[in-house]
Amino acid sequence: MPNTSPPFRADHVGSLLRPSEVKEARMRHADGKLDAAGLTAVEDVAIRRMIARQEEVGLEAVTDGELRRGSWHMDFLGQLDGIERRHAEGVQFKGMVTQPRTLKVVGKVGFSRHPMLDHFLFVKRNSRVIAKMCIPSPTHVAGTTRDWRPVVGSDIYPGLEPLFADLASAYRKAIRAFADAGCSYLQIDDCNFAFLCDPVVQQRLRQQGDDPDWTLRAFARLVADSLADRPPNMTITMHSCRGNFRSTWMSEGSWEAVADIVFNTIPVDGFFLEYESERAGGLEPLRYMPKNKAVVLGLISSKLPALEPKDQVKRRIEEATRYVALDRVHLSPQCGFASTEEGNQITEDEQWRKLAHVVEIAREVWGS
User: Fold this and answer.
1) Alpha-carbon gap, residue 340 to 246, rounded angstroms
2) Cα–Cα distance, 75 to 135 (Å, whole number)
């Protein structure tokens, strides 16, 4: 049962480990020793090589590996109108803290020209297969890891509802702009729905005066409103995981807490779901999945170097078919390999072996 349109039987979330020359060039640029044009030239060479390697392992959709980004979400959100990137206290992962950076809403949120349109066009010009674009969910302006009030500020928006209205409008314009640039495969990356599965996150929200159930429904409406005018010729998926920074994570908990709302009210074509560890719970929440949506099972770890036994992965796929028909099931890593420029604690060779592993298993399960 091969498929000819996204999501593909063997797919991936998008980010890839930054090669050493890209890391070095970014540091030299930050120190003022390399200009913007010089940095772009280094990135261009590395991205062309990344695209070719993705095609070689058999992937049918390729990305730029997010090599031009420091962070999977802040680089996009921080270049919308009215939002700036700022230095702040780092976010706590399991045993590690991220770089000290955050977002700040400084004016009315909107969308004009965005540099990532050019990033997408570069991939499209240099690939033989489908160019996939990954952008963060609008929910990450407010988020669940910190109190949203210092980020937003009542002088700009008195509450989340007016902010969400402007965010949804900005995203509708952004999605149209990517469609006009030729993007036919867009992925929305959202961790907040997975975070809301965690009782610890729910309790933190209550302590800061927010209702987790209201937050879940408000976030779902925000994403749905952002996709209200989605182009008919664009496949849109949503990826959700429990955090991914240097092979660590932020939260845990079964999809059961959010599955009905997320799967049935967010108008995407498919869901990339983290399922590579016990942190995600069982596959039973897939029973809420509508029959017209694809499920991309994140059964391969992007955090750990060891290859998962093929028989083990196939058993999980078979288990998933208790709830979702096999022709709607797909396979991928649970997240990218470098959600931030630091990257996970595996090597580039191990990364490519993981992606080839996804392709090999998919061919054995669904055919060439």
Assistant:
1) 8
2) 10
Beta bridge partners of 300: 333
Give 39-69 pLDDT, tens digit per residue: 999 999 999 999 999 999 999 999 999 999 9
Widest pairwise Cα distance in the chain: 57
Distances 20 to 17, 26, 27, 32, 46 between C-alpha atoms, Å: 9, 10, 11, 18, 10
- Give the Cα separation of 207 and 195 in Å (integer): 16
Alpha helices by DSSP H, listed for 35-159, are: 36-57, 74-77, 116-126, 149-152
- Across the chain, how many H-helices and E-strands are there? 12, 10
Q: Round to whole Å and give the CA distance between 312 and 292.
A: 27
Any idea where the domains of the chain sit in the sequence? 20-366
Asked whether residue 143 carries a pLDDT value surpassing 70, the answer given is yes
User: Among candidates 232, 187, 214, which has minimal Cα distance to 63?
Assistant: 187
pLDDT digits (tens, 9 = 90+) for 281-336: 999 999 999 999 999 999 999 999 999 999 999 999 999 999 999 999 999 999 99
Q: What is the pLDDT of residue 259?
A: 97
Task: Give the model confidence (pLDDT) of 181-213 as tens digits.
Answer: 999 999 999 999 999 999 999 999 999 999 999
pLDDT value of residue 247 = 62
Question: Are the C-beta atoms of residues 286 and 262 closer than 8 Å to each other?
Answer: no
Q: Tell me the helix, strand and coil percentages in the chain, rounded to 5.
A: 40, 15, 40
* Long-range pairs for 204-209: beta carbons < 8 A, 24 or more residues apart: 204/144, 205/144, 208/147
- Contact, 82 vs 107, CB < 8 A? yes
Shortest CA distance to 241 belongs to which of 312, 300, 200? 300
Q: What is the pTM of this model?
A: 0.93
Task: Find the helix or strand (DSSP H, E) in which 166 lies.
Answer: helix 160-180
- For the 20-366 domain, the top CATH level (class) is alpha beta
Q: Give the integer Cα–Cα distance in Å for 244 and 339.
A: 6
Comparing CA positions, the residue from 122, 17, 128, 93 lying closest to residue 351 is 17
